[in-house]
Amino acid sequence: MQMQAKWMLLLLLCFTMLVGCGQSGSSNAGQAADKAAGQGISGAEPSGDKKPNGGEENIELTFYYPIAVGGPLTSVVENMTKKFTEKHPNITVKPVYTGSYADTTTKIQAGIQAQQPPDVAVMLSTELFSMLDTNAILPLDDFIAKESGDVLQDFYPAFLANSQVEGKTYSIPFQRSTIVLYYNKDVFKEADLDPEQPPKTWADLVEVAAKVKKAGRHGIEVPGSGFAYWMFQQFALQNMSDPKQNLMTQDGKKVFFDTPENIEALQFWHDLSLKHKVMPDGVIEWATVPTDFLEQRTAMMIHTTGNLTNIKNNAKFDFGVAFLPMSKQYGSPTGGGNLYIFKDIDPKKQVAAWEFIKFMTEPEQAAQWSIDTGYVAVRKSAYETDVMKTYAADFPQSVVARDQLEHAYAELSTHNNGKVSKALTDQVQAVLTGTTDAATALKKAQEEAERALKPFNK
Amino acid sequence: MRMSVTWKERLARNGLAWALLLPSLLFLILFTYYPMLKTAWLSLFQADLAVPEPVFNGADNYAFLFSDPVFQKVFSNNLWFAVGTVPTSMILAFLMALFADKAMAGKTFSRVAFFYPNMVPMIAVANIWLFIYTPQYGLLAQLAQWVGRADMNLLGHPDTVMGAMIVMMIWKEAGYFMIFYLAGLQNIPKDLYESASMDGVGAWKVTTRITIPLTMPTTLFVGVVALTNAFKLVDHLWIMTKGGPDNASNLLLYHIYDTAFSFYDQGMAAAMTVVMIAVLLILSSLQFFGWDRKIHYQ
Question: pLDDT of A7-40, one tens digit each?
């Protein structure tokens, strides 16, 4: 009954242990010894002792990945891994679809506790500190240093921001998103507005929203359920006078929730519904916002780029995608998942996993993955490939998110990230429902976050 | 000498019973009692992201829990959820059973119709009701349009979200409990009703003096099931609200899941699990030991 979650964990443990036994039994005998050695050194300088991947020894990698957007993506992933094996015949990759992001992380955590983690996996970029605190992931700097040229150069800095802490890089961007403004061009025409002129500033946004609003149709919708902290972050970033600022420090030990600028930002979100009356009041559910937009119940929406393909396929009207309106600057947090390599595995596998990561983020793969999913391609050269050029010419909306990356910043990511982001989400919701005022709410969120961060600030 | 004889006697008498119980007992120990004890032990440790290995901290987790406003809110939410769902769904189940038992035409139809919501999985129920509650074009919103209030966002407001959940849960649960009452009604000897009608006793008196007392064992059973369900059924929260807005619809089990798997706080999650087990134990033992004597078993 209430032990269900625990049971699941226990079963998972049993299962992973069984799988583990099977593996070490069937593969070559040297592996167990190698693994023990790998564990021994993993605390100090794990990748320093790595032997080069010489010879033709067969290596099998387990790759966990979640799916968070629509479409037949398991077959896409399987094709990618097959292509990889064609290039590297001695490495086989076993892709394992592991459900949502949350499910994937849970399975990986159980694996870590049983000392049987996957070799490589896609997890939220914001899992960085939790993974570091459980001592689960490998810094990738030694691999990067061995490559010719600067591999990271080509990746968008906004995406890398969530991978790096204290000068080390722990993950490589894979499926990433940002937040954009979607607007209904037909409605703009109907309201005598130029459909090529989406609102640029907060003041524009309020004005335009008031004009396109009518009975049965709202001006704008911003979801406030599950990811309220993320949606709040975009308003906050737009209202920051210093572009170097964010809601937290890069080392994930401090947060700045209750600054006057952030209070203003939250007040603005609140005012959209309760003062300007251009947005429905209360907390709007994440999943109903795109549906409302498609049903033309709202003329504009602020949502993830992950919805681009969905809107493209289902909109019965002409729609535009635009930068998020600015207050003092343009701004959006990034979101989505990165590729991680785990510490507690055979060093040979770690080398193979790095090869796999390199392959998965090659420009052609990044371009194709972006087209298939709607995620933003993670590196600049992906947009120079022929497939991407053809796609972008046909569907210019897809490039807006990329252009906005210049104004994108790291997503809220700290130690004890679950508690910290929940503290913010709860208080944002309290303001949106009119229970608390912005200043009190953010002060409370700040206090709660500080309590969660206290052990990491010793 | 004497001891061993009694042992032998006992074994001879109860050996078969033990042999029959052993397999299920083994599974219970492995998958219920052992994890329970393990959880109770873990609840005495700080086991979160701040410490690499669990650190024994005695009753600290419990002390923190009872001063934690979120836990207090979630706990009282769960009590209100129980108060809201249990009596209403039981009364409804009883009335539905009376109706389905008496109905001449369409007996099977009415039973199936009442029971149907229970056959739908909780996740599907949550999706159906998410549509019903959706502002603007949801079923309820369309009905409300006639009265001119289309814009109610029931799930998005802290005052209404709990009520909305309770109504959904009653809809789902009542049919299930009706089945037990139907079975209970079959067990009441028909001659009691016959003699009552010979004596010219009214329908109200028949119900209050015969039907209700004689279905008390069912009521007890259903009551226990309903109460535990109020703490167990939380699947809908994943679909509908994620516990929001601002924890207004959050329930204990969902909060435990969040604490264990989003916050990685195993120690605190274990402490809350222990509290939950304790509450359920107290509730069910109160019912079993308290009410037991007042019930007419046949």
Answer: 444 444 444 444 434 333 333 333 333 333 333 3
Choice between A23 and B32, residue whose per-residue pLDDT is larger: B32
User: Same fold for the domain at A59-176+336-407 and the one at A178-332+414-456?
Assistant: yes
Averaged confidence pLDDT in chain B = 87
Contact residues, chain B, for A224 at CB < 8 Å: 156, 245
Q: What angle do CA A110, A111, A116 make, to 5 degrees?
A: 155
Q: Nearest residue of A to residue B263 by CA position?
A: A418
Supply the pLDDT for residue B292: 61
Q: Best of A113, A285, A425, A447 to disrupt the B interface by mutation (most B CBs within 10 Å)?
A: A285
For chain A, list residues with pLDDT below 70: 1-56, 70-71
Report the alpha-carbon distance of residue B178 to residue B243 in Å, rounded: 29
Q: Name the residue with higher pLDDT: B146 or B87.
A: B87
| Cα distance from N-terminal residue to C-terminal residue, chain A | 39
Q: Look at residues A352, A286, A330, A323 and name the one whose alpha carbon lies nearest to residue A54.
A: A352
| Residue B131 near chain A (CB below 8 Å) | no
Q: Do B156 and A283 touch (CB under 8 A)?
A: yes
Whole-number pLDDT of residue A1: 41
Does A284 lie at the interface with B, CB-CB under 8 angstroms?
yes
Identify the three-state secondary structure at position A100.
coil
Asked if the Cβ–Cβ distance from A134 to B264 is below 8 Å, we say yes
Are B49 and A430 within 8 A, CB to CB?
Answer: no
pLDDT value at residue A349: 92
- Give the β-pairing of A332-341 and A172-184: antiparallel
> What are the boundaries of each domain within chain A?
59-176+336-407, 178-332+414-456
pLDDT of residue B104: 64
Chain B residues touching residue A113 (CB < 8 angstroms): none
pLDDT in tens, A135-144: 899 999 999 9
Q: Touching check for B78 and chain A: CB below 8 Å? A: no
Token pair recorded at residue B74: 């979630």
Q: Are A134 and B49 in contact (CB under 8 A)?
A: yes
Instruction: Write down the CATH superfamily of domain A178-332+414-456.
Output: Periplasmic binding protein-like II (3.40.190.10)
> How confident is the model at residue B37, as a pLDDT?
93
Which chain B residues contact residue A453 at CB under 8 A?
Answer: none
CB A317 within 8 A of CB A183: no
Tell which B residues from 243 to 282 touch A, by Cβ distance under 8 Å: 244-247, 252-253, 256-258, 260-265, 273, 276-277, 280
- For residue B150, the model assigns a pLDDT of 59
Q: What is the pLDDT of residues B232-261, one digit of tens each?
A: 888 889 888 888 788 999 999 999 999 988
Do A109 and B32 make contact, defined as CB atoms within 8 angstroms?
no
> What are the φ and ψ backbone dihedral angles of A163, each rounded to 5 degrees?
-95, -15
Name the residue among A5, A288, A422 with its Cβ closest to that of B257: A5
Start-end of H helices in A287-410: 288-294, 308-314, 347-360, 363-373, 386-394, 397-404
A6 touches chain B (CB under 8 A): yes
Nearest CA in chain B to A427: B246
CATH number belonging to the domain at A59-176+336-407, selected among 3.40.630.30, 3.40.190.10, 3.30.70.100, 3.40.50.2300: 3.40.190.10
**pTM beyond 0.90:** no
